[in-house]
Every structure is written in C-alpha cells, then in structure tokens.
Amino acid sequence: MEHVKCECGHVNPHGTAFCESCGKPLADLGEKPLLDMRYEGSARRSQTYKKTMIDQIWAFFSSVKVGVALIVITLIASVIGTIFPQQMYIPPNADPAEYYKQQYGWAGKLYYELGFNNLYGSWWYILLIALIGVSLVICSLDRVIPLYRALKRQGVKRHPRFLERQRLFGVSHVSDLDKTMAVLKERLAKRRYHVREEDGHLLAEKGRFSRWGPYVNHIGLIIFLIGAMLRSVPGMYIDRVMWIPEGETKEIPGTNGRYFLKSEKFIFETYEKGKDNEVFNAAIDRVGNGMIAKNYQTNVVLYKRVGPVIPGAKPKLEKVKEYPIRVNEPLKFDHYALYQVDFRLNEPKAMSFQLADKQSGKTFGTVTVDLYDPKESYNLGHGYRVELLSYFPDFEFDEDGNPSTKSRVPNNPAFVFKMYAPDRPKGEVSFVAIQQTIEPFGDNKYKMAFAGLQTRNVSGLTVRRDFTLWILGVGGAIFMIGLIQGMYWNHRRIWVQRINGELWIAAHTNKNWFGLKNELRRLLDGTSVMMPADQLENEKKAGQGGQAHGTA
C-alpha cells in the first residue's frame, strides 16, 4: 500500500488518521469531531493490512477482546482445576483413573478424562498460556511502535484543524503576543514541562514516559508467563509428594536417582493438658481426644549415589548428612528442599495368620503377609503350605458384587487363600477379610486365623526445586513498575500558537482531565489568555439541552 504525503511534506504510512508531523486530518472527519488521540492517529498494522494469512493472524491476536477471552478461559480452567485435588496429591499407590471415579463419581471420571487431574502440566493449559503470551507480544508491537514513531516525529507547529479538534481548545485576542508567549514559556518551564519552540509557536510536554506504562506491564506479564511455561521443562520445577515409612530408604523423586533418603524415626508430639501452657487447654477440651499436634518431624539421613547408574543394580550410597525435618524447617541440598507436610500413624505393614484346624484348634505354622509386597506361596513344612490367590489392599464389593480394591493403600486388606494339607492335597479356598471369613466351596477343615498386625508410621514429605522463581519475581517487579508508571503519571501536552494575530491554545492528556484543567488555570492566571473550553462537556450540555427542549 502506498504512503500518504501531507501538504506539510511529511510522508505518512497508509492508514494514518492525521499527519504525524503537523496533525492535519488526512480523512474527512465531518463537522468538527474530536480527534482520537489514543494512538496519535498512527497507522496500526492490524487495521491496514488484511490480505495475507499472516495479516489475518496478526489482526486476530492484536485484538484486545481476543486477549481478554484467552485470559478468561485460562482463569476458568484454573478454577476448575481446584475442584478436586491434583494427581500429585492423591495417594501415591492409587490408580488415578479409578481413584477419581471412586472418590467423586461421574464428575471425577469426567474430571480425569478431560485432563484436569494434571492441569498445570497439561499441553493444552501450557498452550493457553503461550497464546496469551503471543497475544501480548502482538498487541504491544501493533501499538507501541506506531505510537513511538508518532510521538517522536510530532512537530511543534500543528495544523489549525488539529488544534480546534482537541478536547481543550480556545482562541484569545492578546494585545502583546510576544510578551504573553514569553510569560507562558517561563511558567511552563517552571512546571517541569519540556518546552520546544519553533517560529514563535510552543509545544510543552511532560510525562510522556507514562504512555509506556501498559507496554511495560505487557513485558512483565510476558516474562512471568515464560517463567510459568518453564515450569513444564524437566528439571526447572519440581513439586512432588514423597511417602516414606520408618526404617526404609527411598529414592527422592525428581533427583534422577542421584539422592536417596532414609527415615530413621518419625516423632509425633501432642499438647497435654496440665503440662503445657494453659492457653491450649480450651482447644484440647474442644477436640475431645486431645490429639492436637505440637510437633511432628522425621529424622532422616540423606544419601548420594556414588558411581554410574546401572539399571537393576543396587545403588552404592554415600552418606551426606543427618537432619530432623520439621514443619517450616526443610532439609535443603543442591537446590532441593524437603518439607514435612503430612503423616500417617500406625499404618498396617504386615498381617500374620496361622493355619489352624477348625475343630481341634491345632496350628501348623504362621504366615506373615507383607501388605506392600506379598508372596504368592508360603511353605509351612510337613506337607502344609498356603497360596495367596488374590489380594485386595482396600477391599470393597463392586457394582456387580465382585470383590475389588479402592486403592493400593492397605486401608482394609482382604485375601483369598488356598490351604494345602496332607489330608487335603487339592486344597481348600478361604476368603479372609477383617472380621469376615467366607468359604465359597463349602465348609473347610482348615482356616486362616488372625495372629497379629505389624504397623509403622509413614511421613509425607514434599520435594521442591524451583529455578523459575527469580524469573517470576523479575516479571512481577516489571509489571508493578509499569502499573505505577501508568497509574500515577499522565502524559500532558499544551500547544500555544500564533494564528492570524490571535493566540490559539489547545491541550491534551491521556487521563486526569480535571488535573490538566486546574494546571491550565494556574498557568493562565494573571494573563489576558482565556481558559480553553472543554468541547466534550459542551457537546454533552448541548445534547442534554436539546433533549430537554424536545421533552418540553
């Protein structure tokens, strides 16, 4: 598209509303409407080029409505993601598909199928954030470049049609123009205006930097979004839950097999009435069982793998340090932090059963079933043995009445045993659950009698590492700078020109017109220059007067 040349000689890009240099309107504006000064009448790419696919994509993402719509969709998705817990917070041994369905019904099933269970790491959520970033970049470039060019090239002497189409505009007959102009120039300089003079005309300007506030906001948001997207890059951000029982050593998730943790002991302390401060007595009575946590901590040993990682081989570990992890007192190492966040007391670890004769009560050996790693067969000697046909860690009957498990956590263990004895070579089947025994093939001679339960305490730790925090902080700081820059300052301009022996004065600000009017009154006080009229208010009054006349 061809450029447009103004009568002042300045060549303007196609689509410019009024000349960048002299301000003359380049299109018919009708009967004295006010100029749209939002972008100084500059030509925006999204408004002038719409032929190619790239132009259409640019125009789409440059729309503020599109940007707001993307933000609203992202916010709605984020809210939905808080309805049910994210997958990282459900029991570690639970199958996510079954967990959400069993715990929350059809809503949980739909929640899982739509991917809300792992919302903030899902591809479509990251895509939404990326689209918001693209929208911010294109919106900013589409506006800030033309605006910067127009403000940089604006001339001191402006076309009369530009002046009379400003919101604040007035014409005064002054006896001594030179003296009045000198007084105004001096007063403007005292009020910290940057004053430029050309052929006896004045342009006073201050606070231009406030016009860049929204775009500084955009830069801060873009940096913030980049930091948020980097959280999906492996190694940049880790927030994992680690459950570790007493006495066990486990690999710390997110460390790629480099670090291991051993739980030496879990300590749980409660407030006791009469022994601790009296201020806790009321709370202890209110709870009833007196179980108000005073302190819970995990005494751990941190190990580091020595040598290469060999799949299937037992790792060689080197002790790094011992540390008591308490609430708000994490174990920190190599940019990682382990926080104490939860615990499970007396969690079942193993159950013992005795193979016994139902009539005589004689026992033939004890079977101990590890609830986390059960064996398939247990040999008791002398021809007696027991096979574990099925194991249900969290037993329940499904919709069809068949035994199933809610999760892999042994909250309500149940077993299907097959018992062999010299006089029962084909074996007998028995279903054993807590306080429940079923013999599906008739009366058995033998039974599995409960003989004991082994429990252990389990610590819930959160593993965190965040290399994006400083990026988020920088983005947030830049955003706040732009917010302050745009809110607490405003861009003010005053044009003073001599036209046909008269003094024309016009003024514009991007906001706070009341403040600009007060400043003009103080500026013109004591001179023969009349206060410029607010043409927008005059139009409103004229319109209200016409309505009142029509009603009468």
UniProtKB/TrEMBL annotation:
PANTHER family the UniProt entry points to: CYTOCHROME C BIOGENESIS PROTEIN CCS1, CHLOROPLASTIC (PTHR31566)
Record has Amino-acid biosynthesis as a keyword: no
The protein's name: Cytochrome c biogenesis protein ResB
ResB-like domain span: 64-520
Residues spanning the membrane: 57-84, 123-145, 215-233, 467-489
Membrane topology: Multi-pass membrane protein
Keywords: Cytochrome c-type biogenesis, Membrane, Transmembrane, Transmembrane helix
Matching InterPro entries: Cyt_c_bgen_Ccs1/CcsB/ResB, ResB-like_domain
Organism the protein comes from: Geobacillus proteiniphilus
